[in-house]
Amino acid sequence: MYTPRHFQEQDPERLVALMRQHSFATLVTVGEDGAPFATHLPFLVERDATGAIRLRAHMARPNPQWHAFAAERDVLVLFQGPHAYVSPTWYTPGPPQVPTWNYAAVHAYGRAHVLESPDEVLRLLGDSAETYEAGNPQPWRPDSVAEYVRKLMAGIVAFEVRVSRLEGKLKLSQNKGEEDRRRVIAGLERSAFPGDREVAALMRAREEEPAGG
Q1: Directed axis angle between helix 194-207 and helix 178-189, to 10°?
Q2: Of 32, 43, 152, 187, whose CB neighbour count within 10 A is largest?
């Protein structure tokens, strides 16, 4: 993606945290005909024993996208973080200004392969339930309906993406002066939209980081 220097985010831990927080992402592949294909899926964002990042997910077997994995080409997984409209009326009075959009996004590239082992598929389903049922006072577990889940497994394809490259973009008014950034934060914090307030929280956290942090 196009990422001017002042919007680049290269801290892998910050990017992984953003991916985990916004884990419903878009898987993009390119078919033999050159046409792109996209599927929206929840991903588990993990590090293996070596520290490498891997993404696990599953899709419906009738979805043809998983056949593209055999081509041994990189896939792209797009993680969209919070985003918000920024009004030019929030800036310090002075020269003319125009609206813009602040946002956070991560692009993960890597090779995908199908998880063939039933044990791997079950582990993925169990880990997914544990992740997304967190906070539920009575969390659902696949082994509570184990026979039913095993029957349904024939209708899904589980897969893993081994990430080889991350691109991060946090467009948070870094190209504006300190006073303008503070005014944007204040404007977003007044918003009724949760996403706007989340962008404000990202901006405020960045403003409060130690110099060079």
Answers
A1: 150
A2: 43
Q: In the prediction, which pLDDT does 212 show? A: 56
CA dihedral for 94, 99, 104, 107, sign (positive or negative) = negative
Q: Write down the pTM of the prediction.
A: 0.93
In whole angstroms, give the CA distance from residue 50 to residue 35.
35
**In degrees, to the nearest 5, what angle opens at C-alpha 49 toward C-alphas 104 and 153?**
75
To 10 degrees, the CA torsion angle through 148, 23, 78, 159? -30
User: What ranges do the domains of the chain cover?
Assistant: 5-90+100-174
CA 182, chain centre distance (Å): 26
Q: Residues 6 or more apart from 11 whose CB is under 8 A from it?
A: 168
Give the CATH number of domain 5-90+100-174: 2.30.110.10
Report residue 167: phi and psi, to 5°.
-120, 125
pLDDT at 33: 86
Phi, psi (deg, nearest 5) at residue 179: -65, -40
